[in-house]
Amino acid sequence: MDPIITATFLVSAPDQRGLVARLSGFFYELGLNILDASNHTDVHAEAGPRFFMRLVVDLGGLAAPEAARKLGGSAGRKALEASFELCAQLLGASWSVGYSDVLPRMALLVTKDPTCLYDLVLRQRSGELRCEIPVVISNHAALEPVAESFRIPFVALPVTPETKREQERQVVAELRRHHVDLVVLARYMQILSDELLREAPTVINIHHGFLPAFQGAKPYHQAHARGVKLIGATAHYATKDLDQGPIIEQDVARVSHEMGPDDLVRVGRDVERVVLARAVRAHLERRVIVEGRRTMVL
Amino acid sequence: MDPIITATFLVSAPDQRGLVARLSGFFYELGLNILDASNHTDVHAEAGPRFFMRLVVDLGGLAAPEAARKLGGSAGRKALEASFELCAQLLGASWSVGYSDVLPRMALLVTKDPTCLYDLVLRQRSGELRCEIPVVISNHAALEPVAESFRIPFVALPVTPETKREQERQVVAELRRHHVDLVVLARYMQILSDELLREAPTVINIHHGFLPAFQGAKPYHQAHARGVKLIGATAHYATKDLDQGPIIEQDVARVSHEMGPDDLVRVGRDVERVVLARAVRAHLERRVIVEGRRTMVL
Amino acid sequence: MDPIITATFLVSAPDQRGLVARLSGFFYELGLNILDASNHTDVHAEAGPRFFMRLVVDLGGLAAPEAARKLGGSAGRKALEASFELCAQLLGASWSVGYSDVLPRMALLVTKDPTCLYDLVLRQRSGELRCEIPVVISNHAALEPVAESFRIPFVALPVTPETKREQERQVVAELRRHHVDLVVLARYMQILSDELLREAPTVINIHHGFLPAFQGAKPYHQAHARGVKLIGATAHYATKDLDQGPIIEQDVARVSHEMGPDDLVRVGRDVERVVLARAVRAHLERRVIVEGRRTMVL
Amino acid sequence: MDPIITATFLVSAPDQRGLVARLSGFFYELGLNILDASNHTDVHAEAGPRFFMRLVVDLGGLAAPEAARKLGGSAGRKALEASFELCAQLLGASWSVGYSDVLPRMALLVTKDPTCLYDLVLRQRSGELRCEIPVVISNHAALEPVAESFRIPFVALPVTPETKREQERQVVAELRRHHVDLVVLARYMQILSDELLREAPTVINIHHGFLPAFQGAKPYHQAHARGVKLIGATAHYATKDLDQGPIIEQDVARVSHEMGPDDLVRVGRDVERVVLARAVRAHLERRVIVEGRRTMVL
Q1: CB count in 10 Å sphere of residue B108
Q2: Which helix (H) or strand (E) holds C230?
Q3: Which of B228, D46, D202, D241 gives 20 to 30 Å between its CA and that of D107?
Q4: Residue C264, SS3 per DSSP
Q5: Inter-chain touch C36–B38, beta carbons under 8 Å
Q6: Is B77 helix (H, G, I), strand (E, B) or coil?
Q7: Are C156 and C195 contained in the same domain?
Q8: Chain B residues within 8 A of D263 when measuring between CB atoms
Q9: Which residues contact D235 (CB under 8 A, 6 or more apart)?
Q10: Phi and psi (nearest 5°) for C72?
């Protein structure tokens, strides 16, 4: 639909004078129009104020001869990235880039609950989530028909405590075979080992959450016993500290004393689904920068 | 304004056949019209299914001769209560009653922050909270002018670790002197001892809350460090387990990475104010039944 | 799963003394336990105060001999209904009843957008919506594969201005053939004629809504032009006054100036989906009573 | 508290290449650090894509000799503004600037309802609204004690249909006498004439709003008659098209069939209060740019 091809840069640097001017000036001099820019300075960061910026630039300008000249002969993406790296080094910045014509490849890990699987696939099919879904991986065969109905390859990798290590190796092999950039735990009822998290690309998880917080098994039953009036969910990047990774998105829904534990599970599932979809969308649009235990959603 | 005088009964009983019919029949036979009735059966209660009912009846019917006859000669409130007690005993029910022409007397305990104090007094003055506010008690003199501007007696009772016990005795004495029915901790920055909670009437507290939960000092700074996207508040009855009493009301507000800890405190204060007001209103309207660690808000 | 069979009565009557007692007494005398009861008196109704009640009773009591005796020989559902009708006539009440072992039959009318179709079918499959879906009817063939993937019969009835009358006759014929109790317009992009609304069973529609309200074509573009900060949706019963039927449920989502008309459409679609699901659920649980242009959701 | 003095620029221009770079470059060359920057391009604007930017710069850099040199001899605010005007002319941009050490002066227009008056004054006193409140103007004497309790001058200017023109002249005279920059209609129950709107500074109004929309008298009664499930409020700039000015902020609250018209009024008042406070805060922080009938809240 949209013939404009864009590059989205995410930049993080120690705060210093002139950052907005220098970063936007970089693209201005190359003749690349900035379509969207947002930045934020976190003055409360532990290691001193830190600057974050998201820039969306129109790559159309690369077609002009001056771009090639200024980039040292070749107006390609590699040359653009090499030139930006020099600029970033001067600022002590870390950065990454994504291109609108290169769709990220997202794998879904599921078990038996189809809610998040349907939701994410339907949002991808409607164009809301701009990505490919090359594979659905499960520790159970239950959702194969759902994946099949959307013609997405389905890989069943059952797991027992004894085979966990081997199963995770197979999971990683599948992720590599399908060139996966992002793993979404769409109610995958297994804890990922540190080894898997080291070997896998970025992982997003969805976690129920309550005020006050309940830990351990059957959290919805605990929440019912305490009579909470709100049920929540938190989408976060998976790190080795279980459920402690940087938060991307959160939301809640209202419940009442009339609802039993099963109702709370149902309402909670709806919140989890919406929160997960919003977090995945923000990630795919390259709006999320992680800094320590926090995220900036620009 | 409203010439109708009502009695609001709250009833809690082991679930059994015919409860709605028998409780509503009690008033029907006396010629008292039921203006509002709601009930709930908690099938998940630990000691077996438990029934809860709130009945609002028009006391106008007590003026008819038949009421006096059926109540044994006197159609007064005492006789009505005695008769209802017999009915309740047959059902194994516990109950309480309040009358619309007897306003509960609410004391506010404050320290330095005027937000909740202003909010609760203004809601009472506008008729939203049907109660009297006979006294504001504080461990600090800062808010005396605010209480004065509304012509509410203000008692300053400073406290140090050494004088805490004696100060709490004075607090209890003030509560008794003013015939207080309900104590609201409107950002009172002191922990109440078990002794005070035993001697005081019902106490409602407001507590900040987060997903995930943060404990200890400076919770807003912890929440900022973790990058939460929601800030919450919980209003609950105070019990000796600090911040673990039955929850009356909860809500949240959305925050972003752009907000520093001070912004989170400001947003949190707004949520706390609204949640506390809603909880106090529900209590004053006799909508809240406590059962173990839960509340039913009928 | 649940072996208890229940009947849910909805009653509407002019307000009068003893209604709760007499209605609950009716079931008490038959030995039928009331599992859930809620009522409301609308003192602002045009024709004087009006009383509404929802009663869920356990039909298990019909197995006792006394029930048959009191119902005049036969403890069946017909006898129960005849007996309740006598009670209702004394009170001037209108009423209806539904049984938990008789699932309502819901037809979905769709066009091309699969969002609401998927959402409602998945909620039905997960047990959240207790109904059967005997048929999906569309004026377009696009969604046939979706209906097929759930093995639901799909009927395509294309329509032009010239054939509208005939097409609607076919729609009504399909509704009758499948014994449909409830029609849900799941983004069916056709206006129903008064004739169809007269012949069809209850119809629920979902309608976008904004503050301030925009009428006519392209409402999302109008809302964008005005710069609204909220987008809403309203689920209502369809009546001959287009989009003016009694409201069952409403909700909103927050939008910003950064969103173009397409984003508003996407956000709006999500709100519409959730609001429609909640309205259908309330209707199926027999919680909705219509009184004039209003609904009570008990 | 905060020793940093900042200038906040709001810029609006036809979209063109290099806008972010050129605007941020302007301050970079003067040695002024950009503390916060956000921008947005509205590609749907009627007259072609339009660019909006908010820049907060640290004026500390004006103390360096180079700033004076580059600004033509004087590193004062007038010289800075003159220099920026040249830059803006090249871009065809319109712009405005505010300084953190010059507090805007906000007048409150009220009638009898104290809710918004208390709310806005308390937020100003707590530091949430950074402004001065030099005067409260009313067409009624009722709220004089409230203004007095905060030591804010109160001017009562009663009005009848005959004296409306003269009263508005007096209102304008008071606004001028107190050098007012912003007028907030805090439930001022008078319609402002076009003349007043032309002569007064910026005016913010709060308006109730519903889904679907109700016009004319007694909107809460109409909303009750229709059985709405949500009540809303819209804060907007006042223009001569009554209640049709650019929207700054909106929100809603949930209501139920149990609430009578008076309850709806009470809930609506709470929503209005919060929405108005948020809109005033956004305006005072110079986050709002008006473009035609829309606002961008950057």
Answers
A1: 28
A2: strand C230-237
A3: D241
A4: helix
A5: no
A6: helix
A7: yes
A8: none
A9: D204, D205, D206, D207, D247, D248, D249, D250, D275, D276, D278, D279, D280
A10: 90, 30
H-helix or E-strand spanning residue D91: helix D77-91
Domain tally, chain A: 2
Q: How many pairs of residues across A and C have Cβ atoms under 8 Å apart?
A: 16
Residue C236 lies in a domain: yes
Residues 118-147 of D with CB under 8 A from B: 118, 122, 126, 128
Q: Is the pLDDT of residue D196 over 60?
A: yes
Mean pLDDT (whole number) for B156-182? 97
In this structure, are D64 and D115 located in the same domain?
Answer: no
* Averaged pLDDT, D208-214: 76
Q: Averaged in consecutive runs of 10 residues, what is the pLDDT profile of chain C (298 residues)?
A: 83 93 94 90 87 94 90 91 96 97 97 94 93 98 95 97 96 97 96 94 91 74 88 92 86 89 87 94 96 90
CATH number at residue A91: 3.30.70.260
Of A118, A266, A274, nearest to C122 by CB-CB distance is A118
As separate numbers, helices (DSSP H) first and strands (DSSP E) second, chain D gives 9, 13
Interchain CB contact of D194 with A (< 8 Å): no
Residues facing D247 on adjacent strands: D236
Active-site hit among A243, A251, A263, A270 = A243
Q: Which helix (H) or strand (E) holds D256?
A: none
Touching check for B52 and chain C: CB below 8 Å?
no
End-of-domain residue from the set B53, B74, B99:
B99
Chain A's closest residue to D25, CA to CA, is A21
- From the list B15, B58, B113, B243, the catalytic residue is B243
Cα torsion C15, C17, C20, C23 to 10°: value is -90
* Judgement on whether residues D224 and D270 belong to the same structural domain of the protein: yes
Q: Do A20 and D41 touch (CB under 8 A)?
A: no
How far, in Å, CA of A180 to CA of A107, rounded?
6
Q: What residues of chain B lie within 8 A of the CB of C31, using their CB?
A: 17
Residues D34 and D119 in one domain: no
Q: Report H helices in D92-158.
A: 115-125, 144-149
Residue B251, chain A, CB below 8 Å: the answer is: yes
D266 and D228 assigned to the same domain: yes
Q: What subunits touch chain B, counting only 3 or more CB pairs under 8 A?
A: A, C, D
- Return the SS3 of C250: strand
Q: Best residue in C41, C205, C211 to probe D by mutation, most D CBs within 10 Å?
A: C211
Confidence class for position B1, pLDDT limits 50, 70, 90: very low
Q: What is the CATH number of the domain that holds D270?
A: 3.40.50.170
Q: How far is CA A247 from the centre of its chain?
A: 11
CA distance A226 to B237: 12
**Are D212 and C211 in contact (CB < 8 Å)?**
no
Q: Active-site residue A119, yes or no? A: no
Q: Domain of D27?
A: 6-99
Lowest-confidence pick of A120-134, B25-39, C202-216, D249-263: C202-216
In one-letter notation, the amino acid at residue C127 is G
Inter-chain touch A115–C122, beta carbons under 8 Å: yes
Of the residues B9, B11, B20, B33, the best mutation for testing chain C's interface (the one with the most C CB atoms within 10 Å of its CB) is: B20
Spatial separation of the C-alpha atoms in residues A28 and A34, rounded to whole Å:
8
Question: In this complex, do C212 and D243 lie within 8 Å of one another by their Cβ atoms?
Answer: yes
Residues of C acting as catalytic residues: 243
pTM, entire model: 0.89
- Residue contact B230–A250, C-beta within 8 A: yes
ipTM of this predicted structure: 0.86
Number of separate helices (H) and strands (E) present in chain A: 9, 13
CB contact under 8 A, C250 and D228: yes
* A126 and A265 part of one domain: yes
Q: Return d(Cα D245, Cα D239) in angstroms, integer.
A: 5
Residues in chain C: 298
Q: For residue D206, what pLDDT band results from cuts at 50, 70 and 90?
A: very high
